[in-house]
Amino acid sequence: MTIEELRIRIDELDRQLVALLSERARAAQMIGHLKAATSLPVYEPNREKIIYANVRAANKGPLPDIELTHIYERIIDVMRALQRNELASQRHAQAAEAEGGSQGHAAGESSPETGKRS
Amino acid sequence: MTIEELRIRIDELDRQLVALLSERARAAQMIGHLKAATSLPVYEPNREKIIYANVRAANKGPLPDIELTHIYERIIDVMRALQRNELASQRHAQAAEAEGGSQGHAAGESSPETGKRS
After folding, report:
1. Which residue of A has its CA nearest to B79?
2. What pLDDT, in 10s, does the model give residues A97-107?
3. What is the mean pLDDT of residues A39-57?
């Protein structure tokens, strides 16, 4: 295989990666939506441990686990931000709804930010 | 779908992502191998522009382009390091070969570990 052929293959793999990352993002968004109803925090360290363990177990090389972990740290950061947005817009909508007839009620409902920030 | 079901789906997607990232890494490694013969540099800004353009063109959301770019910056960093290792071990092998039968030939044949490390 030439460099040119390998690059065509890489571009193809990147399009597949984007599709998978997008599907993963949609699932994270839906979890954010469900968390708004249950008041679960965005940052759940135990869940993240499971994600990293799953990723390492699936790794057959050639990337060392540590490098794959570096990529996943970034993926998880981005997904967390997305989930936080989803949660915020959800709560904003709920607050607006609760405001209904009365006013100034929404402010009391806002809870402190519990998510981890990088 | 419950949070639990969505997490099962995410774990499945992560295993597929690891498989694609590994295949991408193998292709990058092969390019590193070919670059050693042509003395092309590891860092090629024009090629990286093409990668980012391809990724943005493939993006249909929900991740904003900027967030996807953040993930890709990390992916490219990791791939570049892998390619650099491949190139180094290749050149190391070539240098050892050039040294010829003189001495230390056996030692020169061992290449640095490029496989999975945990």
Report:
1. A63
2. 888 755 544 44
3. 92
Options 1.20.1250.20, 1.20.59.10, 2.30.30.700, 1.10.10.10; CATH for A3-90 is 1.20.59.10
Average pLDDT of span B91-115: 61
Using a CB-CB cut-off of 8 Å, the residues of chain A touching B55 are: 14, 18
Please tell me the distance from the alpha carbon of residue A77 to that of residue A118, in angstroms, as a whole number: 7
Domain at B3-94, CATH homologous superfamily: Chorismate mutase (1.20.59.10)
Query: Is B93 in contact with B108 (CB distance < 8 Å)?
Result: yes
In chain B, the N- to C-terminal Cα span, in Å, equals 35
Nearest-angstrom CA–CA distance, B40 and B69: 25
Closest CA to A33 of A92, A73, A74, A78: A92
Q: What is the mean pLDDT of residues B41-70?
A: 95
User: Alpha-carbon distance A48 to A80, whole Å?
Assistant: 11
Return the residue of B nearest to A82 by Cα: B63
